[in-house]
Structures are given as C-alpha cells and as structure tokens.
Write a structure and sequence with these properties.
single chain, globular, alpha+beta
C-alpha cells in the first residue's frame, strides 16, 4: 500500500458526516423494530436528518445539515417542529465546514452551544501502519479484546454504559435501548476489552461505504490508564483494514486523553463539531 495524504476539506467532511447520518437513520430503524413503543423516527432536513430515539435519549439529534449550501429557515423550522411534537429537546450537531450561515441562523433563533468535539480521521492506506496485535502487553497486565457475539450485546451495552454512568447515576432507559438497537445495525460490531478476564471496557465499530466509524469507546474507572482504549482502537483498526476500509473516523472531546490515544494510532483532526441546543 502507498501512503495516502488526507486533506481536511469539504469533500471529506461531507463523506464523514453522511456516514454518521446514515448510522443514525439505521439506528432509529433498528430501535423502532426492537421497541416500537419508543416511536423512533427520522425526517430529512437541510441535507441531513433529524432523528428521534425516544423520550429522554441523548441520541435524539439532527446532523449533516448545511454541507451542501445554506439551510433555508423553513427547513430549520421543520426540524424544530419534529422535536417539539415529540416533547424533546432540539439538538443539532454542526460541522465546522458547514455553510457559515447555519450557525448565525441558529444563534438568532436562540440556540446555545452545549459542547464541541473534534472529528479525527486516519488513512488505512498507510504502509505498515496497522500491522499490530489485537492483544498487547501492558505494565498492569494483558488487555484482551474480542468481538461480542450477538446474544451477548445487552450485557456488553451495560458494561459500556457503566463507563459513562457510574453508580449511583444510571443511564436513561431510552439510551440503553438505543445502544442495544445499534448493535443490530448492518455493518455494526461490538467489542469488549478484558483485563485478567474481567470486563474492562467496550466500543463499537460501524463499517459504511469503505469508512470505519469508531464510536462508544469507554473504559471502566477501575481499569483506566492501563491501555484499554488503545487496545480497543488497535483491534478495530485491524478489523477495518481486513474488511477493506480505507478510512477510519472517530470523535473525541478536544484535547482529551481519548484524542491523544487516537492520535497515537495515526488519527488526525479533520474538523470540529458544535452541538447546539434549544428547549
């Protein structure tokens, strides 16, 4: 393979955002089949989609808007009505390469910035970069990563959610249902990391149109700083390479440990995302 240079431009952002948008749509379809009472639904808006994943789910949001030009205000009103009719907060992820008028329009409509994230990409066409072992030795022990069987996905979801919601906090039921449903999305696989045979963390991999989407990375507090996330990254990179993917994508908090771990595996920041909300 030859080394491939990735340029952070609008074409790349369109491709990456389209993949995340497709994942959200398929996740809603899977949830509607798994739990019809969720009333999971989608609507096309502004070149992307708004997705409802059940009352109280943080997965209910809009994304992919504004990457093919300005978004007319009637489209934004349609998005707002979609969420309002379902009694949920309006959330929209805006890529930094989207049409500049979108952020201005949302600000004028009373939207507030909730958070920012970095979208990172890695070329899988870089010679010799991905030939790593799935299992790696760490000073604190062996991190073993395996793909989760379909009948074990519910328990895997509970492990991953425990990485983000430590007791006494509990994840919203709608989030758990949505996470279980995502495991049924075509091209999605679940991965579990273990240390000394004990669950230590987990993550997801979604393959879509030659892209490998890395998401849901979490490490249980007891096992942090022991190479768990790195092992999960390497295992999924090897799987994506074997599946013929040429590009891997992940999203992290700016300057976080997760971003540094991804950068150590060859990921680089391509653009940023801003999450805006309106009650």
């Amino acid at each position: 393979m030859n080394n491939e240079i990735l340029f952070a431009d609008l074409d790349l952002a369109r491709r990456v955002e389209a993949a995340w948008d497709c994942l959200a749509i398929e996740n809603a379809k899977a949830l509607k089949t798994l739990a019809p009472v969720s009333a999971a639904d989608t609507v096309a808006v502004g070149g992307g989609h708004a997705v409802f994943m059940g009352v109280g789910s943080p997965l209910s949001q809009a994304q992919g808007l504004g990457l093919h030009g300005p978004v007319p205000e009637p489209e934004i009103a349609l998005m707002e009505a979609f969420f309002r009719d379902r009694h949920t907060l309006t959330q929209i992820e805006v890529a930094s390469l989207a049409d500049q008028s979108l952020l201005s329009c949302l600000t004028q409509r009373g939207y507030m910035i909730a958070e920012q994230t970095h979208m990172l990409v890695a070329s899988l066409a870089t010679e010799g970069l991905r030939q790593t072992s799935v299992n790696q030795s760490e000073s604190a022990g062996i991190v073993d990563v395996t793909e989760v069987e379909p009948d074990q996905c519910a328990s895997w979801v509970d492990v991953v959610l425990s990485c983000f919601f430590e007791e006494p906090a509990a994840p919203p039921p709608a989030l758990r249902d949505g996470a279980i449903a995502m495991a049924a999305v075509p091209g999605c696989s679940a991965w579990m990391a273990r240390v000394d045979r004990q669950p230590a963390g987990g993550a997801s991999l979604v393959i879509h149109d030659g892209l490998a989407l890395f998401c849901g990375d979490g490490t249980l507090s007891t096992f942090r700083h022991r190479g768990v996330q790195t092992a999960l990254l390497r295992a999924r990179l090897a799987h994506a390479l074997a599946a013929g993917c040429r590009l891997a994508v992940t999203c992290t908090q700016p300057g976080s440990g997760s971003q540094r771990n991804a950068e150590r595996q060859g990921f680089r920041v391509a653009y940023a995302r801003t999450m805006l909300t309106r009650p």
